[in-house]
Amino acid sequence: VQLQASGGGLVQAGGSLRLSCAVSGRTFSNYGMGWFRQAPGKEREFVGAINRSDGTTYYEDSVKGRFTISRDNAKNTVYLQMASLKPEDTAVYYCAASWFETPQDSSNVDYWGKGTQVTVSS
Questions:
Q1: In Å, what is the CA distance from 71 to each residue of 40, 86, 99?
Q2: What φ, ψ does residue 87 adopt, rounded to 5°?
Q3: Cβ count near 78 (within 10 Å)
Q4: pLDDT at position 26, please?
Q5: First vs last C-alpha separation in the chain
Q6: Residue 32, helix vs strand vs coil
């Protein structure tokens, strides 16, 4: 399974970005998908996830109401729409896949994508 994330960049505080993660290799609909991020000097942390069955979503508290995760099974792609961005959202963002589970913790992630940098200027 390969995960390819894209869509990162530099944005001013209050702005928006949409990250995409294209998945190839196995049946996408069998995977719960998630996003994690890692800021310099910090551990990788959970951002949001979406389950494989009914699209239930989960978010880390600091992004609730600002970030939206969605998936398109026909395109084998998961998205992270980020709005009202803050400088503290600056990090490398990683997409993650879990076989028949929802990746809300690094311990149940089966596959990681390469990260995409998001930088929010103040």
A1: 28, 24, 15
A2: -55, -30
A3: 30
A4: 79
A5: 37
A6: strand
The two structure tokens encoding residue 65 = 């109401």
Mean pLDDT, consecutive 10-residue stretches, the chain (122 aa), reads: 96 98 91 97 97 95 98 96 98 96 94 97 96
Query: What pLDDT score does 5 carry?
Result: 96
9-12/116-121 β-pairing? parallel
Amino acid at 17: L
Lookup: tokens for 106: 């690094």
- Per-residue model confidence (pLDDT) at position 86: 98
Tokens for 95, please give them: 């997409």
What count of Cα atoms within 13 Å lies in the side-chain half-sphere of residue 89? Answer: 32
What separation in angstroms does the CA of 86 have from each of 19, 74, 82, 89, 119?
Answer: 16, 32, 10, 5, 9
CA distance linking residue 107 with residue 87, whole number of Å: 27
Place of tokens 């998630």: 34
